[in-house]
Design a protein that fits this description.
Elements lengths: L4 E3 L3 E4 L2 E6 L2 E7 L2 E2 L13 H21 L4 E5 L15 E7 L12 H7 L4 E2 L7 H15 L13 H6 L2
Parallel strand pairs: 4-7
Antiparallel strand pairs: 1-6, 2-3, 3-4, 5-8, 6-7
């Protein structure tokens, strides 16, 4: 998938990954430019405070996104990944910008889901593969959320997702 597409039906896995079916093919997509807190899976039995905190914020981020996208269409704009024209990451997910819109001609920075997650304090920007207006807007939204102590920025015990994953 390299062209923008509209996805009316989707299954949310966590706040930065969902899957959808198109032409009888299941596709997983990962939000470009951001990382969100991880969710707890059934096999996760840890009782460590940092794990429980991560999963609590993961559930919060997923719930926030779920309420935002329920019964709405998401437009995906695939992003070439790792210096190639391919938009797939090492897990086979299509890396894309996500937008709340009914058709691809309605895509704007203002309806970008990653920006909305960052503004709510539920996503952190990750280094860009190709910086542009969306990435820069995510960085500004994150800075504002952090200054206003929104979302996980208000939690002194929260460990950023990429640091938490590296320490597991």
């Amino acid at each position: 998938m390299t062209q923008p597409i509209a996805v009316p039906r989707k299954f949310l896995l966590d706040a930065d990954t969902f899957q959808f079916s198109r032409n009888k093919k299941i596709t997983r997509t990962r939000a470009a430019w951001i990382d969100t807190p991880e969710i707890r899976y059934k096999a996760d039995m840890s009782q460590k405070p940092e794990d429980l905190n991560q999963w609590e914020w993961g559930a919060e981020a997923k719930g926030f996104l779920l309420s935002m996208i329920a019964r709405k269409t998401i437009c995906l704009v695939p992003i070439p990944y790792g210096g190639s024209a391919n938009a797939l990451d090492s897990f086979g997910r299509t890396i894309a910008d996500w937008h709340l819109c009914d058709s691809i001609d309605q895509i704007t920075v203002g309806n970008n889901i990653q920006v909305m997650l960052a503004a709510a304090g539920l996503a952190v920007h990750v280094p860009p593969i190709n910086s542009g207006i969306i990435y820069q807007t995510i960085r500004v939204a994150q800075s504002q959320a952090k200054a206003l102590k929104k979302g996980f920025w208000a939690d002194d015990n929260f460990v950023l997702p990429y640091i938490w994953k590296a320490n597991r």
